[in-house]
Structures are given as structure tokens and as C-alpha cells.
């Protein structure tokens, strides 16, 4: 790779020229990394709902033309000025949020919400100079959440890269850079169920099943999956889900159903839909005295919800989490090790695989609600 250091690299990237239109494989120019930046070769990427949400751009303004993608794994090609902890050849996971290691959040043991590198879906340029590193015929192509992994090469701030075990298979651990880890950490780091406890999971997509996997690893005895789509129930058993509730099957609110099923409520609940009704249900279905509900799903920008203050006074706790409370650089390598030790199972999350040339198939699958994660192979 050394021959490309300091040079512009020409490579293939899937460019979104406008909202909702199929991505187009184009030859793009990728500039060398600048101060505190790293250029990496992406080997595998996967599609997350966040990519689709901003590609559709129905609920918000999105910058185009743009290169989406943020769940991925790759190898460092070259590093910019000031980068000391990464070197060419290192295996890394790019992350949509970061860890500068210097701000108040990074120095706090409780927070992972870095002031400098926290997710910014509006910004389409690099922090160092406010410019893009991608271009076609001299015209800028914008970045997405600092990662833009739907490109054979990309440039990322060093604080958004987790250096991982080089023996870890990149076609599996690439899915740990967003959704699965978010759900897993919401349970293990925030809800913290004890062995033998009961946990309700609202929403059985990839994030919710990551949360269920966390409950399974924690030794929960009852894991109740809640979803409007009953076809998800059978597959969720592989993730430790023991019982299923479809709110459409009942005349009363689902929280009342769960309270009856569990003799007073579950010990923990994790909400992974972003729907405010599900948030209320997740909070109101936990047991008084010790119940903890954790919100993971991102709501509509104008969303708000109501619950009676007595629910808090009766010693129920409501928490929120971002990226499962994992600090990307400090904590993600240990999540990869959980997979390497065969504690965490990733294969069951991967339901489809396509070559890069067929990336639009991954979008079609997600829009149809088919499968969990689709791996996109950059080569072949």
C-alpha cells in the first residue's frame, strides 16, 4: 500500500446523487489524510437503517451528492500528521461517533458522548479544514457521519477508529461498529440485568436482537420480545428470546399485558423502536421498587411523551443511552474479543451478503424489512 501514501487514490464508491434514488458506482478521487486523519481501505461494510433514513431524506434535509455507509471494517492505508496510535496495516472499525480522549465527556467514566466527535448527521465535511476528501472531476462529494464506508477507500478522523485484533474476521466484526453494539451495550452497560432476572425487549430488529443477546449473556431467565411483526418471533429465539407479545393481539395496553405476565412487571426493559408509545410501554412495564427501562430508539424530532410522575416515585428508573454507552476506541476492541472468545455470536445477525456492485440490493432488502444485516463485500 506504501506507493499510495501521500497520493490521491482513485477508487470505486457508491454515490447517492439525490434522495431516494439508487446509488451509482462511480470512480472517485480520495485525497490523502490531513492532520489527525486516517485513510483506510474498506473490506466489508453493512447497511444500517440510519443510512436508509438519511438517503430517503423524508424527515430531514440531507446533503447530496454523498457517500453513505458507517458499519464497516477495514485496514489502515496511511495516516495524517499527528496520528501516533495507528499505523498502515492496522485493522480498524470506523465508528459514526468518536472519542477524542481529551474533552470532559471522554475523561468521564460515565459518558461516551465526545464533545468533538459526537455524531453529526448534517456535517458532510472533515473537521480539520471544512473540506471533503472525496471528489469527482474536482467537484466535492460529501461525507456521512464521518465514515462514508460505501467506498473502497475513505478518510476518517483518528478518534472515530477502533483498533482491533488483526485475527478477527472483518466480514463478521464489521457489524459491531453500530447497531448490534448499541443494543448489546444498552442491556449490558445500562440496564444491567442480573442472572435469573426478566427483561422485555421492544422492537426485534437488529438493535433489539443485540439487546436480547445482551440479556442472554447476562443470564436473564425470561426475555420477552415485543413487536408488531409476528414473523420476527421465530428467528428471535436464536437470540435468547423466550416469550413473545404482539400488542395487536390485545385490547389493553401492552404494558398491562407484561405486568400480568410477570407478576408486577419485568426487572428491566430495553426500547429499540424510537416510537413514543413503545417508550411509555417500556417504562410502565417495569416492576416498581427496582425496575429500570432503557431507551435506545431515536424518536421523531418533534416527539414527546407523557407518563404519570407516580411511576417514578414508585421507584422505577428511566434511562437513555447512546451507542450502548461504549467509548469507541477504548471499549469496542473488548466487544470484538467477546466474539473471538465465542461468548457473543455474530453469525446469526448476518442474513444476506452481496458484492459491492449490487449494493442497491441491500437497500431493497432493508426497505422490504427482510433479514437483519446484509454484508457488502467491497471486492468481487
From TrEMBL:
Query: Where in the cell?
Result: Cytoplasm
A molecular function GO annotation: alcohol dehydrogenase (NAD+) activity
Class of enzymatic activity (EC top level): oxidoreductase
Keyword terms of this UniProt record: Cytoplasm, Metal-binding, NAD, Oxidoreductase, Zinc
Q: Looking at the keywords, is DNA damage present? A: no
Please name the Pfam families in this protein's record: ADH_N, ADH_zinc_N
Catalytic activity, EC: 1.1.1.1
Any idea where the Alcohol dehydrogenase-like C-terminal domain is? Answer: 206-338
Name its co-factor(s): Zn(2+)
Q: Kindly list the GO CC terms recorded for this protein.
A: cytoplasm
This enzyme catalyses: a primary alcohol + NAD(+) = an aldehyde + NADH + H(+); a secondary alcohol + NAD(+) = a ketone + NADH + H(+)
Tell me where in this chain the Alcohol dehydrogenase-like N-terminal domain is found: 36-164
Q: State the family it belongs to.
A: Belongs to the zinc-containing alcohol dehydrogenase family.
Q: What is this protein called?
A: alcohol dehydrogenase
